[in-house]
Design a protein that fits this description.
The protein has 183 residues and is mainly α. Helices cover 81% and strands 0% of the residues.
Length: 183
Amino acid sequence: MPARMLVELLRNTPFLIQLFLIYYALPSLGVSLSVATAALLSLSLFAGTYFAESIRGAISSVPRGQMDSARAVGMSYALAMRRIIFPQMLGYLLPALTNNMIGIVKFSSILSIITLPEVTMASQIVLGETFSVTEAFTVTALLYWSLTTAITMGMSRLERRTATHRLGAITISPAQLIVFNHK
């Protein structure tokens, strides 16, 4: 229940508010954090809740009968999760993880608000020195685009590899199909 409450709290509040609370409110309570630590903690908590919810959703997407069948043949809960549920949930999990990872990359631009030097802040510095709005933000957009494209390509490759593995594991030969149909 505490984990569920934390996930709901962090998923239902804006990242910017969470960032401000960690960066400004914790020091007022006596917890001193550097800019990088506050940024990392904020982004980790925010992303962790989305990853947790994606994993929960992927596990819930596997039909309940799969776990019931595994338990009926004597598998422990942990073994059933590892051998039966986990391989099946990957198909549901990987697209959600891809979206979460892309979201984290894009949300990292908000970290410039607390003066963490990152790509968006670098473009603002260039803009302040050169007054080249179009060039500064075009380069920034291209950097974010290339990073998110790399994530998408990597995760797509992983999806294809796991899909091939999963499909290979459930292939039925014609002889098995004939035997199965005659029962």
